[in-house]
């Protein structure tokens, strides 16, 4: 397999990013981008992805992902 | 006239602590038609460093005390108060007819729960969350951004801790940023 097949472009929090992998799950993406926090809200192409679906939701070439990290205080 | 527009609007406020009590009071002053408030807590002395309550209200239910305080400021505002810890199901029920929802909970897991609930059940309803209010100073780190109908006010960084307690100035700024965002949505005809 050549390199171009192992890359994809996504938009993460309004920034274009090259991910050196294809068809990864949200859980894998979070690991790759070093998101260690538990409390997140994630939208994939403007649709909410619930916590319990991170493991089996795939991120594909061109996808737009927004990740909000929640912290306590109010 | 902004008053005519606002008097027909309903805003849901989830939580009556630092963010919720101050945001509710700001919206009451400008003449919002109806507020639907919810909280399960009772006022303790340590709340008074930031929450819109009075010394004599220590021991009272936050929802009842806030309703009283709003009535003293602007008795034309209709306040529907729910004295309970909201579940996802109750959020769907009580905020069904709101034009905008303000997330004003304390804990991160409650914030996540209401945001996920509103985004999945009411994807067209704006929800305004307050994230990162702790400590003091750093005025310019407080900002607003949006991801579709989800609006985020705060610095998104400083979590409450012993070194970074929640205090009136910063909590009040973010609560008023949330109220200001409510007005922008309701008066600039996002609908």
Describe this structure in words.
The complex is a heterodimer of chains A (74) and B (191). Chain A is mainly beta. Chain A has one domain: Ubiquitin-like (UB roll), CATH 3.10.20. Chain A contains one helix and seven strands; from the N terminus they run βββαββββ. Chain A is globular, with a radius of gyration of 13 Å. The model of chain B has no long low-confidence stretch (mean pLDDT 97). Chain B starts with a helix and ends with a helix. Chain B is globular. In chain B, β1 (10-14), α2 and β2 form a beta-alpha-beta unit. Chain B contains six helices and seven strands, in the order αβαβαβαβαβββα.
Gap from first CA to last CA of chain B: 17 Å
CATH architecture of chain B: 3-Layer(aba) Sandwich
Order of helices and strands of chain A: EEEHEEEE
What is the level-2 CATH architecture name of chain A? Roll
Say what oligomer this is: heterodimer
Pair of chains with the largest interface and how many residues each contributes: A-B, 17 and 34 residues
Characteristics of this structure?
heterodimer, A: 74 residues, mainly beta, Ubiquitin-like (UB roll), five-stranded mixed sheet, two-stranded antiparallel sheet, globular, B: alpha/beta, Rossmann fold, seven-stranded mixed sheet, 6 helices
State the gist of this model.
The complex is a heterodimer of chains A (74) and B (191). By secondary structure, chain A is mainly beta.
In terms of topology, how is this protein built?
The complex is a heterodimer of chains A (74) and B (191).
Chain A: E1 8-12, E2 15-19, E3 24-25, H1 26-32, E4 40-44, E5 47-49, E6 58-59, E7 64-69
Parallel strand pairs in A: 1-7
Antiparallel strand pairs in A: 1-2, 3-6, 4-5, 4-7
Chain B: H1 2-6, E1 10-14, H2 18-29, E2 34-38, H3 62-73, E3 78-82, H4 88-94, E4 100-103, H5 108-121, E5 127-130, E6 143-147, E7 150-154, H6 168-187
Parallel strand pairs in B: 1-2, 1-4, 2-3, 4-5, 5-7
Antiparallel strand pairs in B: 6-7
Helix pairs in contact in B: 2-3, 2-6, 4-5
